[in-house]
């Protein structure tokens, strides 16, 4: 039996040592809270998938000036990079550099915390609650006793695409973040990328940097492509939290975009986006996801200007093409993948023969398909359920995970992209750093004393 006082002296266990989990650990340690950071892939510790890339062409999609790990020290990353002026702060640096920054911050925090912090190299398989505490069982049989568990599992791999799953492995790459996915492709002639977001842009750049000289076709429902950041900025005029909803809000943003430009209009919403999402009903949120999400994504989640220029150069040279259409079928013929799709706005079916297909359709939100033993156990035990939109884990505004009956749990919480259903905008560094800062204060019994802007 663990007494209440003894439980309070146990650490917070964080399952997942990528960006969200690492930053939460650092913030908790700043407040004197004991931490056990559990990560199954030591190579991704303090980096995760996004910042664990080894490819220098993968740049941050946020300016260096807004990439501080701490909302109460906005210039921390710029100082770490030794950026002294506005021109340098406007740079979009390689993600691998940012991964180094995070790892250094974690090492420093661990050194200061001493025995109050531990990093555990292992895979969490189950969580049991009892005796006023939580108990995380690892794959090797060890058990981590803690006073609470935070799931920081990052983005899940892309959802399996039923049309493509029948293709053989040498023709189909279901996970674009698999480091072996682009190996040996230099001699191929034609590659198909399904999905046209930021991940698709990463794949295209990696192909080009690896010596691929053929053609890339990017297929998505609407044929949209991410837009670019301005060369400098942003210069944003702060606005109060808009109380408009639905179509009225969309019309207001469009009018504002005509006055000051679309970037300024969208950026002004940044401090309020999560509140706007929460004020809308479930039905209104679903309409947004069904009709407006692709357009919001390309305006909100932008490319570094240099990345956009490289992609535009490939388009101009005829090596990159964006196509709007719906996948209808795929099979192997003559050593290639023959993919059938219906062009947007048309009734007929067209076919394209390619040497490799990449699934860049975005992370899967179906918790039943995610290959994470701890999540599977929590689902089966009724401690976790998916959010109403199928975007991730259902949580309340504090990050407490709702069980199968809808009850928020004080000893099981979640942070980062898997909480998208509650917060919507929770995939970029500025949003996650604010979330983990608030969660750290909640777990440390500190008071929230302010927020942040852009």
Automatic annotation (TrEMBL):
Q: Which SUPFAM superfamilies match?
A: FAD/NAD(P)-binding domain (SSF51905)
Gene3D superfamilies from the xrefs? FAD/NAD(P)-binding domain
Q: Ranges for the FAD-dependent urate hydroxylase HpyO/Asp monooxygenase CreE-like FAD/NAD(P)-binding domain?
A: 13-155
Record InterPro entries: FAD/NAD-bd_sf, HpyO/CreE_NAD-binding, L-asp_N-monooxygenase_NS-form
Q: What is this protein called?
A: FAD-dependent oxidoreductase
């Amino acid at each position: 039996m663990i007494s209440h006082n003894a439980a309070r002296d146990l650490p917070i266990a964080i399952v997942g040592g990528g960006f969200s989990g690492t930053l939460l650990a650092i913030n908790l340690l700043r407040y004197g809270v004991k931490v056990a950071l559990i990560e199954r892939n030591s190579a991704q510790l303090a980096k995760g998938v996004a910042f664990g890339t080894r490819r220098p062409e993968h740049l941050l999609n946020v300016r260096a000036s807004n990439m501080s790990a701490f909302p109460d020290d906005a210039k921390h990353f710029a100082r770490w990079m030794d950026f002294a002026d506005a021109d340098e702060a406007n740079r979009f640096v390689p993600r691998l550099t940012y991964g180094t920054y995070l790892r250094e911050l974690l090492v420093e925090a661990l050194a200061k915390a001493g025995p109050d912090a531990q990093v555990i190299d292992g895979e969490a398989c189950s969580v049991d609650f009892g005796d006023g505490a939580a108990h995380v069982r690892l794959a090797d049989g060890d058990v981590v006793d803690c006073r609470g568990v935070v799931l920081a599992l990052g983005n899940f791999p892309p959802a399996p695409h039923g049309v493509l799953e029948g293709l053989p492995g040498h023709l189909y790459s279901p996970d674009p973040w698999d480091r072996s996915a682009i190996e040996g492709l230099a001699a191929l002639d034609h590659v198909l990328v399904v999905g046209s977001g930021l991940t698709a842009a990463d794949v295209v750049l990696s192909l080009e940097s690896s010596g691929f000289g053929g053609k890339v076709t990017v297929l998505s429902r609407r044929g949209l492509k991410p837009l670019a950041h301005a060369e400098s900025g942003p210069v944003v005029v702060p606005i109060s939290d808009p109380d408009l909803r639905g179509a009225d809000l969309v019309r207001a943003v469009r009018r504002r975009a005509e006055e000051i430009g679309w970037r300024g209009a969208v950026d002004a919403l940044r401090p309020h986006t999560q509140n706007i999402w929460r004020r809308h009903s479930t039905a209104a949120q679903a309409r947004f996801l069904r009709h407006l999400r692709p357009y919001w994504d390309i305006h909100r989640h932008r490319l570094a200007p240099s990345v956009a220029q490289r992609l535009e150069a490939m388009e101009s040279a005829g090596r990159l093409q964006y196509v709007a259409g719906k996948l209808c079928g795929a099979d192997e013929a003559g050593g290639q993948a023959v993919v059938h799709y219906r062009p947007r706005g048309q009734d007929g079916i067209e076919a394209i023969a390619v040497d490799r297909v990449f699934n860049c359709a975005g992370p899967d939100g179906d918790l039943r398909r995610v290959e994470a033993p701890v999540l599977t156990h929590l689902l089966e035990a009724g401690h976790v359920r998916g959010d109403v939109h199928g975007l991730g884990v259902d949580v309340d505004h504090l990050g407490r995970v709702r069980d199968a009956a809808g009850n928020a749990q004080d000893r099981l919480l979640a942070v980062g992209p898997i909480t998208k259903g509650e917060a919507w905008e929770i995939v970029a560094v500025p949003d996650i750093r604010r979330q983990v800062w608030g969660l750290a204060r909640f777990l440390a019994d500190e008071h929230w004393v302010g927020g942040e802007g852009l």
